[in-house]
Amino acid sequence: MGNRRIAVFGAGYIGLVTGACFAKLGHEVVVRDIQDERIAVLRGGGVPIHEDGLAELIAQNAERLTFTVDAQEAVRDAEVVYVCVDTPTTPSGDADLSRIWQVLDSLHGARHLAAVVVKSTVPVGTGARVRAAMDSAGLHAVGYAANPEFTAEGRAVQDFLHPDRVVIGSDDPDTTKLVAQLHDGVDGPVVEMDVASAEMVKLAANALLATKVSFTNEIATICEATGADVERVVGAVGLDHRLGPHFMRAGLGYGGSCFPKDSRALRALSGNAGYAFQLISSVIEVNDLQPRRAIQRLKEELGGFQGRTVALLGMAFKAGTDDIREAPSTIIASRLQAEGASIRCWDPLVRALDGAPWSSTTRCPSPLEAMDGADAAVVVTEWPQLQELAWDEAAAVMRRPLLFDGRNLLDPVQMGAIGFTYMSVGRSTVRGTA
Ligand code: UGA
Fold this sequence. Notes:
There is one protein chain. The chain is of the alpha/beta class. It is built from 17 helices and 14 strands. It has helices at 13-24, 36-43, 54-60, 71-76, 98-105, 126-136, 156-161, 173-182, 195-226, 230-237, 259-272, 278-302, 328-338, 367-371, 384-387, 391-397, 412-418, and strands at residues 5-9, 28-32, 65-68, 80-83, 115-118, 143-146, 166-169, 190-193, 309-313, 342-346, 362-363, 376-379, 402-405, 421-424. The radius of gyration is 24 Å and the shape is elongated. The mean pLDDT is 96. It binds uridine-5'-diphosphate-glucuronic acid (UGA).
């Protein structure tokens, strides 16, 4: 069927990866964003976010990839419009769809449009509303599809090109076929369904992954209370092929732009339908408590934070990304400040940050500098650099060798041998012997 002209709306993590991957597959892609600065960076050959392999992909496919702030220019020749704009949460817990409506408002100038495809995460029922809005705008002949996105940050390019599945929801077979053909060359099965079910797949998948994380964190808490070791427990539980080892890493809780928002959106969606989804409410509550519990344990060990200095190792919500949206680090930093601590922080990718709590922290160029003179350190993000660190040097520069490993990244026995009081999640505290 050949290559298509695609306009991607939104040059965030999802839009840029989608645009670059479609260009790699041979399509002509124009990516549109409302932020002038972002588009200027992209036009200048730069990439405004960190995503593994993305800069290379954009450079390699530059002849099929353009960037614009002009919506009319983007849609004029497009055969398919891909909607990858953000859908933030409103005060009622619903998703704010205003950016999707803005995309629809700009479609009148399109001369060759065959389909609108929504990749943004939306409440179930959005597709039906968009379809109705398109019909009343005279776009009856233009197809509609939901094509939810399952890529994880840090490995999004890989996930896009080698997915577990491509889900296409459309009530019109021609549109389903068109969207499936856009994915020719993608190494994964296409699963076709109706629009509402496709929207639900996305929310259900993220909710189940978040549930596994919160479940593991609850088991970890019980391990702490009973003397069991969560890493041993999970290692053996995960060998059951029906359960699998994934998303069972105990830690400071899930963050990022997806799990927190999507779990709340699913709870709101259920509530709006008159159903109290108790399980997802508990998942959210466990996750909210996880960083607070860690700070409380550290506080007890240290005897209070007033006048103390704490090193935060990692700010990103997970390793491999520069993203701090809903990162546990933000809760931890502001809790520590509320308790009277000064913070020295380090992260290899996160760029300079304004506003509370970060504006009143000291940013350090290396983990060792962050720990220099600190009364305690917290591993917040599982950066590999921390695994390779000379922890004996860290113990020597700290005022007191006290480490809370919020990602169970390090070996308790080794840390104890170095002289650390080593606390982690779901494992007994080790008191330094050096
Ligand atoms: C997640 C999903 O994994 C993607 O499939 C989905 O497409 C994406 O959300 C989305 O909705 O856009 P992402 O938010 O990039 O991807 O990150 P994950 O790797 O899933 O991690 C989410 C959070 O859970 C992180 O804070 C991570 O540290 C935490 N986590 C993950 C744990 O605490 N324990 C684990 O075992 C796994």
